[in-house]
Design goal:
Number of domains: 2
Protein name: non-specific serine/threonine protein kinase
CATH topology of the largest domain: Phosphorylase Kinase, domain 1
Pfam families: RIO1
Bound molecules: adenosine-5'-diphosphate, magnesium ion
CATH superfamily of the largest domain: Phosphorylase Kinase, domain 1
Strand order of the largest sheet: 1-2-3-5-4
Keywords: ATP-binding, Kinase, Magnesium, Metal-binding, Nucleotide-binding, Serine/threonine-protein kinase, Transferase
Helix content: 40-55%
Distance between the termini: 55 Å
Order of helices and strands: HHEEEHHHEEEEEHEEEEHH
GO molecular function, one term: ATP binding
Largest sheet: 5 strands, antiparallel
Number of strands: 12
Number of helices: 8
Catalytic activity: L-threonyl-[protein] + ATP = O-phospho-L-threonyl-[protein] + ADP + H(+); L-seryl-[protein] + ATP = O-phospho-L-seryl-[protein] + ADP + H(+)
Shape: globular
């Protein structure tokens, strides 16, 4: 099968149109990789017209995703329109959360462009080889990472941002530094969404406990550090 046939086999017509649009505008070139495939998204790498390597995350127009997200979208206060619009809104939320994290100085891929169901962002890695999630590449200094990641959670929280799916699967080890990815389940912090923040903190504590570290802080203490009134 030729490359274009593979893509048309995998992607629906709407997605192919969106890929073409980003190619026509010079944000991406041919899709190479893929570097990540899940039930709900594909991530490729590509080169833009300036020769910069970028990561391209495409949310599939997948009926299973759709089943999972309505309640979540309700928490975000937006649940209108047809199926494709909902996936596009979902993508836009992810892009906005990623942008917010980038703007407050968290180590995340630089956001470059969001179009319909596609996010173009900085590629974390070198020479076409993506940095690996910490679950697969544990060659890092936990003494540094643990407090740093807790600081990130606090900083995001003080800026009303919850990652929502924080775990060693969504933290890339790039040159020994943690890069947080995948804001697809991001939420604004409020009393309604606090439990998602607690879950993120518990996941990180559990992970470092499993690596033999003593808990730095209980989740309740961290929450108080973020906002005394929560
Ligand atoms: N900016 C990036 N640079 C390098 N690799 C990435 C980047 N974004 C995602 N990946 C790779 O793609 C995989 C899936 O991306 P992710 O955003 O976590 O999507 P999903 O929602 O499917 O979990 C990641 O585990 C990582 O290996
Ligand atoms: Mg992920």
């Amino acid at each position: 099968m030729t490359k274009s046939k593979v893509f048309s086999h995998v992607f629906d017509e709407e997605t192919l149109k969106n890929v073409n649009k980003l190619q026509g505008d010079g944000y991406i070139g041919n899709l190479l990789g893929p570097i990540g495939t899940g039930k709900e998204s594909y991530v490729f790498y590509s080169e833009n017209f300036k020769g910069r390597v970028v990561a391209v995350k495409i949310h599939r127009h997948n009926i299973d995703t759709f089943k999972a997200i309505p309640s979540y979208i309700r928490l975000r206060g937006k649940n209108t329109g047809g199926f494709i619009k909902k996936i596009n809104d979902w993508t836009r939320f992810e892009y906005n959360f990623l942008s917010k994290a980038f703007n407050i100085g968290i180590n995340v891929p630089e956001p470059i462009r969001c179009y319909e169901n596609i996010i173009v962002m900085e590629f974390i890695g070198a020479e076409g080889r993506p940095a690996q999630p910490a679950i697969k590449d544990s060659d890092f200094d936990s003494n540094e990472w643990y407090p740093q990641i807790i600081d990130y959670i606090i900083k995001m929280g003080r800026n009303n941002l919850i990652h929502g799916d924080l775990s060693p699967y969504n933290i890339l080890n790039y040159n020994g530094k943690p890069f947080i990815i995948d804001f697809s389940q991001g939420l604004k912090l409020s009393s309604l969404t606090k439990s998602f923040l607690v879950r993120d903190i518990d996941n990180i504590n559990k992970w470092f406990l499993s690596l033999g570290y003593k808990k730095i802080k209980e989740s309740q203490e961290i929450i108080r550090d973020i906002d005394e009134n929560l």
